[in-house]
Design a protein that fits this description.
The complex is a heterodimer of chains A (315) and B (196).
Chain A: H1 8-23, H2 29-38, H3 42-57, H4 80-101, E1 108-112, E2 119-122, E3 128-131, E4 136-141, E5 146-158, E6 167-171, E7 174-187, E8 191-205, E9 208-212, E10 216-221, E11 224-229, H5 232-238, E12 245-252, H6 253-263, E13 267-270, H7 273-276, E14 279-285, H8 289-298, E15 303-307, E16 310-314
Helix pairs in contact in A: 1-3
Chain B: H1 9-12, H2 23-32, H3 36-46, H4 53-70, H5 76-95, H6 106-109, H7 124-136, H8 140-150, H9 156-163, H10 167-187
Classes of the chains: A alpha+beta (315), B mainly alpha (196).
Chain lengths: 315, 196
């Protein structure tokens, strides 16, 4: 290695600049090629990976989206209703903002569910989109094409296939194209999951394409993508939220708690790793946290403590 | 659209969605970065010149990464710290500086074991707390830009508009923000001891 070593700070500044531009709206194929070339140099690649991992990690901040900036911890149980009202008002403000932002684009509509809510949206062509908890989508149905942006959350798509009017779901810079299908798309702060229940879809990300058949699940997380096969029965169980229940089978307490937290303002926190690894099974109403804590307490013998909206589970 | 379902699926497996990540990349992000706080502690304890710490860290990362391209090390923590120690010893020899006493016995430091240590698994809610407290420590304007990007999901142009500043200033705030967040998230021990 004869080239002079550049300082870590210099590398980091350059990497940050790439990363910020890549996040932006004017990112082109050409830019991507230049970045790929830049990333071939290991020192540059490592500086980039480090910032990339931290910056992606910070996507979890999106969980605070509907709390007023600067005071993410508005949680006094006595003010539960007030908090809910405030959240509802904010949701309206947010939707208003979005409507205003896209007012110039015809036929763009947005649909939104609050935490714990579900909504079925039906379209004239017979397509149905079912929104799970805390979900935001925008739709644009034109005479030429049908496009849905999943901005956050999870939705179950039952698409009336029509080759003349392609149906596409955009998730950030990734795209799912219907080829005659029922499928699930779930977007968390740190993860994207696409699962096909019936028919087929095509999944496109930056430079990769995957064709998905029933039972295929694609997961993209932290810049990595993997594909796996699940029994369709398992995927249908994953859709139990459509009936307002969560079905667990040999699920770790940590995963179950995280799942409950999607539907409720009260947040379950499993404090010690040993308890987090315990597994449970059963069907629970998604909005009945106490049915879950009762099992944790009575069956698993764990301790439950409430601190405002935090419910701490420990040994 | 006459593609046959599942014909190309396998090819896409294990490829990056946003960027193509190798096994070594994934290992670096998953296992090495969470050790950064421990590594920084080791470097600071054993190297006099604070101004060189960031470059030493980068050099350690280079060495472990180049090794991982050939074969992923099994004991990541021991490997990273041994690499750091060897690097410092090399430097001392080459530059004939008078060293601190470099701890050659990593066991004596009690930080070489694969268990324990500050890099315990962080449960989701803790991650959020850690992030918000990191956010609170950014300079105000920089923090505002990061909040608008990460929490409100605004584009650079929208942030510029909202904050009443030029787009390149937004870029500066955001890049400064991401660097500071990486330093806080990886380079520092969590403020409160968790687990052990």
């Amino acid at each position: 290695m004869s080239e002079p070593r550049r300082s870590a700070m210099e590398l980091e500044a350059e990497a940050a600049s790439w990363l910020e531009r890549r996040d932006g709206d004017s990112w082109s194929e050409d830019d991507q090629e230049k970045l790929d070339a830049w990333l071939k140099e290991p020192a540059q690649r490592l500086a980039y990976l480090r910032l990339y991992a931290a910056w992606n990690y910070a996507d979890r901040l999106a969980a605070l989206r509907r709390a007023p900036a600067g005071q993410p911890a508005a949680r006094r149980p006595s003010n539960f209703l007030i908090v809910q009202i405030a959240a509802a008002v904010l949701a309206v403000v947010l939707l208003g903002g979005i409507a205003a932002r896209f007012a110039t684009r015809p036929e763009m509509r947005s649909y939104h569910t609050a935490i714990g809510a579900r909504e079925l949206v039906s379209f004239a062509d017979g397509t149905k989109i079912e929104l799970n908890t805390d979900t935001l989508i925008r739709t644009q149905m034109t005479t030429a094409s049908r496009t849905v942006w999943l901005d956050r959350g999870e939705a179950y798509f039952q698409v009336k296939h029509d080759p003349a009017h392609p149906f596409t779901v955009m998730i950030g810079n990734k795209r799912v194209t219907d080829l005659g299908t029922d499928f699930i798309v779930r977007r968390d702060a740190a993860r994207l999951e696409v699962a096909v229940v019936r028919g087929a879809v095509r999944y496109d990300a930056a430079k990769q394409t995957a064709m998905l058949a029933p039972g295929d699940v694609v997961t993209a997380s932290g810049g990595m993508m993997s594909k796996s096969k699940e029994p369709v029965r398992q995927l249908l169980r994953q859709l139990s939220w459509r009936r307002g229940v969560l079905v667990f089978d040999n699920t770790t307490l940590a995963d179950a708690a995280e799942e409950f937290n999607r539907y409720n303002r009260e947040k379950l926190i499993v404090i010690d790793p040993a308890a987090a690894r315990l597994t449970i099974g059963g069907t629970f109403p998604a909005e009945d946290v106490s049915s879950f804590t009762d099992v944790a307490q009575d069956v698993l013998g764990l301790r439950i403590e409430r601190h405002g909206e935090d419910i701490v589970i420990s040994h | 659209m006459g593609e046959k379902p599942d014909s190309e699926g396998a090819r896409a497996q294990a490829l990056g969605a946003d960027m193509i990540v190798s096994e070594a990349d994934a290992w670096f992000m998953r296992e090495v970065l969470p050790l950064e706080a421990t590594l920084m502690l080791f470097l600071r304890q054993n190297w006099r010149n604070r101004a060189e710490i960031a470059d030493l860290r980068q050099e350690v990362y280079m060495r472990v990464y180049e090794a991982a391209l050939k074969e992923i090390p099994e004991q990541t923590k021991a490997f990273v710290l041994a690499t750091a120690r060897n690097l410092l010893i090399d430097r001392v020899r080459k530059e004939s500086v008078i060293p601190f006493e470099i701890v050659t016995d990593l066991e004596a430091l009690g930080i070489a074991s694969e268990q324990a240590g500050p890099e315990h698994t962080i449960i989701a809610r803790d991650a959020l707390r850690r992030l918000t407290s990191a956010l609170d420590r950014l300079p105000p304007r920089c923090r505002e830009a990061v909040v608008l990007r990460k929490i409100e999901g605004l584009s650079r142009r929208e942030i510029a508009h909202r904050m009443g500043i030029a787009e390149f200033t937004v870029n500066r705030h955001l890049t400064e923000g991401m660097r500071a967040l990486a330093d806080i998230l990886y380079g520092e021990l969590p403020e409160r001891g968790r687990g052990k």
